[in-house]
Amino acid sequence: MLISIIIPAYNVSPYIKECIHSAFEQTYPQIEVICIDNNSTDDTWQKLEQLILQYPQLIVDKEMKPGAPAARNKGLQLSKGEWLQFLDADDLLKPEKIAHQVALINNSPAVDVPFIAATCLKRDLKGNETKASLNKEHPFKSLFATQLGNTCANLWNRYYIEKINGWDDSLKSSQEADLMFRLLQVKDEVFYDDEPLTIVRERPEGQISQSNHTKKWIRYFEKRVEMLHWIAENKPTLYAQEKCFFEDTLFEILKIIANENFQVANSLYKKHLKGCYKPSASQEHSTRGYLVLYRFLGFRGAEVARRWLGK
After folding, report:
1. Confidence of residue 207 (pLDDT cuts 50, 70, 90)
2. Domain count within the chain
3. Which residues lie across from 37 on neighbouring strands?
4. Boundaries of domain holding 87
């Protein structure tokens, strides 16, 4: 079974060699490695040309439309594998990553799933690593809480990726959540892989501005509102069982947005939660004091009081 490793690359000169090496160091032999340069302005392309001398089987190409989703789609068009490993150019695969997940597929009586949802190791700038958590209760619930693996840790079934026409390259963020959401609409079953064999590295130059940070949280929130509407209509039993969880999660996101732009957060609250949301007993993101304020003063009043009290 051929596995295609697809790597989008944009201004990753300090990282691309190590990333490519990790792809070719896989113990699983049936792989192809495809790297798509996405308008790099540093010497990423020159380093890819050098890497071809070391790895003649490396496939490289360019995609002019900006954004990793467009580059991944270009790699998808060039690839031939039955399963797909998307790998960001600043991240790494441990040597046994592909072999381990192929074994999961081969040893299972039911391989017809859109993807394997896997954990990973997140490495900070100091080299400290923490294992990302998975939620195995239900794929939609896991996705809603961002606990269904990620782009590079997961292994993706080509059949289902093509069925949904690949990545949505019009999105500015939340592309990963969008991809998994559309896949789960086709079939809401996944394999879970608790072995952390992908390293997701923090990049100092990859830190985003405060303005863009707020916009990303807004898109994050709106994508989950979209999910919730679909679940309510198409999975009514799941919606009824987990309504409190979904709404508590939305409220938690609003509180994060409120820390940066209260007016936007309040507008989203009035549009989506006002008059219909009551914090559940199991919520963990608000103190008892905050919930008392929310009960009597509403979202706006509770947030104003929280700022006045300095909490």
Report:
1. very low
2. 2
3. 9, 62
4. 3-206
